[in-house]
Design brief:
Elements: H1 3-15, H2 20-43, H3 46-51, H4 53-77, H5 81-85, H6 88-95, H7 98-106, H8 129-132, H9 134-145, H10 147-172, H11 182-193, H12 206-240
Helix pairs in contact: 1-2, 1-4, 2-4, 9-12, 10-11, 10-12
Amino acid sequence: MTRNRIKDRLFTVIFESDTQAGKFFDITLLICILISVITILLESIPSYQKEYSYWFRSVEWFFTIVFTLEYGLRLYSTRNAKKYALSFFGIIDLLSILPTYIGLVFAGAHSLMIIRLVRVLRIFRIFKLTKQLTDGNVLLSALKASRSKIMIFLMSVLLIVCVFGTIMYLVEGPVNASFDSIPRSIYWCIVTVTTVGYGDISPVTSGGQFLASILMICGYAILAVPTGIMTGEIIRSEKKATAQTCPYCTKQGHDKDATYCKFCGMPLHERA
């Protein structure tokens, strides 16, 4: 098997999840990520850290080596290693392994004990879950497609809470010390319209309670709007999204009949 064919095979297994080998790789990597994150969480418990420090250290190095090999294979198999290394997930991959190696350099330096906190960055591995599963890519595509609609929706909500906040300040301000400014009244509107309801501020006048009732009812309708927007985009994305990954920019979300990458313009099936 030639070098290019080996790289192509590795690329298919590592970056694409629509093959048997790709699915196995994704599931295995997912399990490793979860175990690694659980280990980090348990290690932060003082009693566990004191009693099982050796085992935590061993597990940490095991997964560091595993993720280092994975990172190296990703750089090797992609056609544009620099572009992958500088991508969002490429940086996340690097941050997930660097802290352990940095700990070797600064070990024993009491003035640099704070460097151990950098190891917490390894929890960023959990972000890889959205990349490894096709459903995650569909969700990301839906978010991108609906961002303009969601922005308009958020601006509308902001306008509503500003108007209601101002009205509540005028109604409640003279008799209720909690509504002592418009920003504080807007804060109450946001808490109310999102149905959080901390209860730290509440209207006492009949007019204020009436406005609060309207805002609460509107809250349920407002919460349903982004759900509808996202659902529609997800349905449209699922119809065309595939697990096919561009070997040059490592991005997914191409149409089923796509020949060229819609992100970088390079051919999807080219073989050197």
